[in-house]
Amino acid sequence: MSQPSTAPGRQHRTVALAAMAGTTIEWYDFFIYALCTGLVFNQLFFQGFGEDSLIISFATIGISFFFRPVGAALAGHLGDRLGRRAMLIATLVLMGAATTLIGLVPTRDSIGMTAPIILVFLRILQGLSAGGEWGGAALIAVEHAPTGRRGRFGAFPQLGAPLGLLLANGVLALMTALTTDEQFLAWGWRIPFLLSVGLVAAGFIIRRKVEESPVYRELKESGNHSRTPLAALFKHHWPLVVGGALLFAANNAVGYMTTGGYVQAYSVNHLKINPTTILICVMIAAVTWLTSTMVGGILSDKIGRIRVYQIGFVIQLAWMFPFFALLNTANTGLIVLGLIVYSIGLGLTYGPQAALFSEMYPTAVRYSGAALSYAIGAVLGGAFAPMIAEALQTSTGTVYSVGVYLTGVTVVGLVVTFFVKERKDVPLGDTATDGQHDEQATVTA
């Protein structure tokens, strides 16, 4: 049998925690860049563009997203052919190397235009890593889990995003508190990037102990694995890729208001809030996001992945404009309140994702399918979300125009949920081959 339900509970938890540890480090690395975009890079690397320096700086976040599908396709192909475990280690090392090197790049005042070019190149490497990382972490956790608890265990790699955000904001808040503005711009911002060396070393040790997925091992032993998983994916399952991408785009655009640094930059540059203060506010929200993500995963085992998604999207829609109204007060307490409720909807549309995306695809193309849905959704939703938000706010003179944009994206995600089938109780091994796509389609025609 392909299901690991008879494996000891300790093994399930060990795998889930290893997946969470790795994604936390990955997202810490990824978010540190995004957070420094509006606080540092616009002043040190893109200052020659005048009033457009902040928008151009945010655009570099989006550029890396276009390389996520490349990373997802490469890691997905190798992950479906060689296994999930090897890709977990490779993507972690790539992300850590790129992040550490960012902390060593000279500024534009030192080496001219070469500085932003190097910075963007290293951000692209981060994008390649992020594109392949999530699929492996999600699958290794879900494919080890018992059928009735895939939502719970699949939520662990999802926790890496709020934990990474919490860690990134915490380290930056500490550095801004311990240094003057001049010191922070001179060298303080580099410390969080250089810390990645130690974090990646710890993650490498943890992930080396993870065994290969039992579902994937059975597939290899049966000889049914695909030699061309990407071709099989797009031949038989392309509607699933599109559906999954639109679901994640609706979550990702909303999430990137904080993870992409827009809220932080808007608060500092327009509301004149102290950087340390707003970073702490986002840290508090990250704890709520963390909790609601875990709740979303657990709840999805009880009432279904789709129902939890729908609840989360409705909360996002209902709270969008109240959130921006509270943010505009520049009152710390009200901003925290706004971010907390905002993060609840975000978590409920993020917690069930690993389980849902894993259940959407047959084992033979599961890594490729889940990773590409995630990566393409990130391009559609998060790639230029901070830049779009900044451009909208600047051109209209009101932050509520950002709310209109995010409302539209969320509506698309909510609509997609009504075309997705619930498969929470279907054993993953029952979808081990890629030739039965008609019976297994998850997105209805």
From TrEMBL:
Query: What Gene Ontology molecular-function terms does this entry list?
Result: transmembrane transporter activity
Subcellular location per UniProt equals: Cell membrane
Query: Mind telling me which Pfam families this protein's record contains?
Result: MFS_1
Q: Which residues form a coiled coil?
A: none
**Membrane topology value:** Multi-pass membrane protein
Q: Which residues form the Major facilitator superfamily (MFS) profile domain?
A: 15-425
Membrane spanning residue stretches: 30-49, 55-74, 86-105, 117-142, 154-178, 184-206, 237-257, 277-299, 306-327, 333-352, 364-388, 400-420
Q: Is this entry keyworded Membrane?
A: yes
Question: What is one GO cellular-component annotation here?
Answer: plasma membrane
Keyword vocabulary terms for this entry: Cell membrane, Membrane, Transmembrane, Transmembrane helix, Transport
What PANTHER family has UniProt attached to this entry?
SHIKIMATE TRANSPORTER
Query: What is the name attached to this protein's record?
Result: MHS family MFS transporter
Q: What is the originating organism of this protein?
A: Streptomyces phyllanthi
